[in-house]
Amino acid sequence: MMALKLLWRSWRGGQLGLVFSALVMAVVVVTSVALLADRVERALVKESSHFLAADAQVRSSREMPTEWQAEAQQRGLETANVALFASMVYSGDYNHLASVKVVEPNYPLRGLLTLSDTPFSTDVAEMQQLDHGPAPGEVWVDSRLLPLLNMSLGDSLEVGEVRLRASRVIVEEPDRGGSFSLFGARVLMNWNDLAASGVIQPGSRVNYRLLLAGEDALLKDYLGWLEPQLAVHDRLLSPDEAQAGLADTLTQGRRFLLLAGSLGVVLAGIALALASRHFAEGQTSTVALLKSWGVSASRVRQLYGQQVLLLGVIGSLLGLLLGWLIHEVLIVLVRELLPVMLPTPGWRPWFTGIATGLLSLLGFALPALWHLPSLSPLAVLRRDVSLHPVGVVKRLLIGVAMVALLLLWYSQNLAMGLAVLCGLALTAATVMGPGWLLLRQLNRLGARVGSVWRLALSNLWRRRIQSLVLLAGFAGAMAILMTLVMIRTTLLEEWRWQLAEDAPNHFLVNVAPYELQGVEKLLADNDLTTVGWYAMVRGRITLIDGETPSEELIDQNEALRRELNLSWTEELPQGNAVEEGLWWPQIEGFAERYGEGVAPLSIEEDLAEEIGVTLGSRLTFSVGGLTFDGVVTSIRSLNWDTMTPNFYILFPEGYLEKFPRIFMTSLYLPPEQKAFVNDLLSQFPTVLVIELDMVIDRIRTMVSQVTHGLELMTLLILGCGVLVMLAAVKLSMSERLQESAVLRTLGSTGKRILAIQSLEFGVLGGLAGLLAASGAELALFLLQQRMFEAPFGLHWELWVVGPLVGALLVASLGVAYTRRSITQPPLQVLSNL
Amino acid sequence: MIEASSINKTVNTSAGSLCILDDINLAVAEGEALAIVGPSGSGKSTLLGILAGLDLPSSGQVKINGEDLTTMDEEGRAAIRARYVGFVFQSFHLLPSLTALENVALPLELRGDRDALVMATEYLQRVGLGERLSHYPRQLSGGEQQRVALARAFASQPKILFADEPTGNLDTATGEAINDLLFQLNAEAGTTLVLVTHEQVLANRCHRRITLQAGCIVDTETAGRVAAG
After folding, report:
1. What percentage of chain B's residues is helix, strand, coil (to nearest 5)?
2. Cα torsion angle, B212, B213, B217, B221, sign
3. Contact status, residue A772 vs residue A435, Cβ threshold 8 Å
4. Residue A680 lies in a domain
């Protein structure tokens, strides 16, 4: 094939090295990022599937049709039925409203149950991990149930009409997760005992779950079959939805990975565009020659089109291979930190890599070559034949459009894509305008200083277009790198803050007023401090604006089906923000307007939206049979990451105090004081302790894995940026070599030329760093505002480190290249040009 | 073989319209060798470009083998060049990333000749470079590079060969050797030759010589003393 032959010859002649490496670079960066992102994400999803004890879960307040399970099994999926309900359990004269979980023997499908034969033990050696539930006739229970029922392991307890032996205590259940609504101690029993117990009667409030696990494709197909059949009271839970916090972590991680990847492509795109222009210049005489031999324009177009395509395919394939290797290296480097085996990647990263390669060529390389077929054959005879390459503006627009397309594709997020693009465009504008002025000013300044400076600065000004292009390349690359580094640190800081070392890791709930003093004393004796006590009253919303909520609304909203924790406070709690309406002190004439006895209330924004409540809506609450009305006076947003008690509905003081109340708090319990939980529960068995440290540990592990992956990937992008700079320097090098040779012929010493070139590059790099700092600051502003919701502050370090690093980096790269021209005899340099 | 009638070429410059060729009429018969001579800037290369279909006159008509180039589009002229025309240039125009053999074979490969490499080898042997097939242009002397260019031009067996100052970049001795080779190959192939030069010796070896001055033919000499080969 002619095109392949031509391509090979161009490659052999060294004309394609830059184009090819830029292309491969783009694909490598994207592929390695995409592969790692894909696999880490799959690992996280798998890990998070432990929260579901399955890959997906269907939840319903009603018994699910048996064919759902049958169909799933027929399609090769594993299934397990689970039913959750509150039921009184008895042992002798004692009883407790337990949270009963009935499971089929193969529960859990994902993750493991941790059990112990010693109640309240914290000794890992005494724990066993099992992948199945209790045998028929047995139950596994929370340690705290034993003192509550005054029983020991091995004793029997009654669940409805069956007697079951409590054989083990539960230490950890994979899918207990963040559900704080079930207050009773856990009793885990076998599905086969359910019917005999007779506890489920018509009208019983039961939460049914169908656990599903299996290969992604099978599961996806099945869910596609199932979803249209789901009614309003059925809910499908994927791992993403299993934990809101975790889902946020996943989303932020995914965004960061894609952002890093797309910035790498932008860098490689710049290199590709520069290298292609250089290649096109070299091809002018070849095309003129071909055309003089009668090769038609369409054939020339075909030949070059095929070459570009071949280059794209070969480069992309090599990029995929190298990307795979680099991502494997990354994985090996962080293997220690990846306790989970990473699953094999899907097809998407490969497709993303190939498409990036081809699209990059289309957007960055092809415009530079576009004019070649229409070149006049007369160019073989005359050097002054004018070329009509695609205009700079047009090429710029095509490049920008391609960058925008790729950014949008990677991020699937318009705001993020636009923010990065704006940062880039503004950097370019910041370079072209002020860069020109700065160069001119420096040139004038140079005229008044020593000859080395004068020559260096006048070189910059004389080649101002080239200087500006280089400046844009350097500044753009540096701006991207600086933005990336800043985002990485900002993002990680935010994550660290979210999961601070001393973040509360235990919730104490269900503390009765008469127990409060005792619990507080026990806490004080153990030197433990809480985030403060919150009193709460359990009440149910019965009417909205005087009307009973519709059946459908109730079905869709658990908040309307159960009792909510209502609390009161005068101060707006930490992590809360009033989004609409006014906080208590600002409300005027409320009693006159709504009458005495009606309470102002503040509701959480998502709940308000779900149940269709706005400012001024009137809600009727039932608390222990007594009702009262409240009117929505504010809508709050909540930060759920603070690990402190949060309430959907808050009242001011003076309205709820008359109702029976319980207390809750959260506290940080250091691992070495874990035994405190046992002391507390043995003294106050009705207190419920929610051990968030388990959940936090799991999230922290995942965040640490992701963080290390990100750091290494950022290094890859940094390397990519340096390569772009090398490409840019190399492009201007032939002219520089020529000048240096001429100067040497005229008697300049090598040292002096070296000094001139170091200064020239150093000044250029310094300027680039300065301009990059402004571009990065702007991009950061946009990104932080739009994406990471972080407060914006000026990053002074950019303005110091930028110019310094820029000057050093560009000068050292420049010097490394120009040394060649000094060591070679001038004649050889000139004849090689 | 070539007929040019009333050829005019004017270009627009900042100083106004500039006449480069003025009412040129000439015909070149098949197998004839024509030299175009004249001082620098007299329009020699422009005329060569127009006759070869690389450029269009501002007015007038150029026919190659009876086909009017001036009524064709670039694609049409390309087809004519592919069918009839070969070139030798002053600056050789060898592709630096190709070996001598590949340079010669390239036009043959482009037109789909299966035995391009065999033919190219044969022609390189004929110009005395059989031992230097795999050398790159940078490894060859100027004279050797022009030999490669000659091999390339004759390998595609054109009906007409246009040569633009073929010895302009070479020293006298090397230039003479190249001239010998050019005329020898030309005689063997019976190619029509149009040659631009300002070397009298070279012009004298052609059947006919026209002299251009300021874009006009000022002299036509069909000297019997002109010897080919």
Report:
1. 35, 30, 35
2. negative
3. no
4. no
Looking at beta carbons, which residues of chain B come within 8 Å of A285? 93, 95
Q: Find which of B9, B11, B46, B95 to mutate to test the A interface (most A CBs within 10 Å of its CB).
A: B95
| CATH code, domain carrying B34 | 3.40.50.300
pLDDT at B228: 40
CB pairs under 8 A between A and B: 75
Q: Is the pLDDT of residue B229 over 50?
A: no
Length of chain B in terms of residues written: 229
A703 shares a domain with A608: no
Instruction: Check if the beta carbon of residue A367 is closer than 8 Å to that of residue A275.
Output: no
Q: What number is the ipTM of this complex?
A: 0.89
- Of the candidates A576, A704, A687, the residue with the CA atom closest to the CA atom of residue A144: A687
Assign A232 a pLDDT band (cuts: 50, 70, 90): low
The pLDDT value given to residue A73: 93
Side-chain-side CA neighbours of A99 within 13 Å: the count stands at 14
Q: How many domains in chain A? A: 4
Question: Chain B partners of A297 at a C-beta cutoff of 8 Å?
Answer: 74-75, 78
Co-location of A797 and A719 in the same domain: yes
Query: Which residue range is the domain that position A594 belongs to?
Result: 530-667
Task: Output the six-digit token pair for A223.
Answer: 């869910």
Indicate the range of A14-18, A75-79, A615-619 predicted with least confidence: A14-18
Distances (CA, A) of B119 to A753, B87, B113: 50, 18, 9
Whether A422 is in a domain gets the answer no
Mutate to test the interface with B, among A10, A12, A284, A292 (most CBs of B within 10 A): A292
Q: What is the pTM of this model?
A: 0.63
Q: Is residue A323 part of a domain?
A: yes
Q: Name every chain A residue with its beta carbon within 8 A of the beta carbon of B20.
A: none
Give the total number of structural domains in chain B: 1
**Domain enclosing residue B185, as ranges:** 2-221
Shared domain for A408 and A273, answered yes or no, is: yes
